[in-house]
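Most newcomers find our protein records easier to grasp once they have seen one. To make this concrete, we reproduce a full record directly below:

…
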Amino acid sequence: MPENTGQQRKVIADAVVSMDGYTSTGPDDDMSWAMQHISSEQSELMYEGIWRGVSTALVGRVNWEGFTAVWPGLTSDPNSSARTRDLGNWLATVEKVVISTTLQQADLDKTQWSNARVSRDLEEEVRSLKGAPGRDILVINSASIIKALLQADLIDELHMAVMPATLGGGVRLLPDGLTSTWQLSHATTIPATGAVILCYRRP
């Protein structure tokens, strides 16, 4: 891990969200409503611009189990794009902190991914990571973690890819009752998929 330059590490939250504010329809969501965007070349390019500046990834139990079931196959598939394979290799080796009250370290060690550990206390973990050496910290599409960190005022950048779809219910990204102010860093559209990318920073 690179030496700390004296600046505190940023916590970046990245999520795919529907027009009506949901990140998924629930535990069995297959993400088909967002796959055209997720698999697009433009999306891969933009996401690469985020993860290459990150040295720690935060995920919850559901995403951990989903990612480790799917990504090793994508990474080894010769039909996957070069950027997909690069991302898969990064996910497999980057420092990963899995926030869970039920998973054990032995559960993580059973997967093909390395450099992962369980943490029980999200806020304490993030405060410690922000003060430690390294590049930025990325929360990967885990709504429960993003909600908790927003309420604790521990997110520095919030990236939302808004899909041209409504889900009508499911898991919301933003917590009820949260009051906060953000500055728009940049916004872009992906005409091929209809997605709008919004990137906000805390002032």
Notes: The two ends are 28 Å apart (CA to CA).
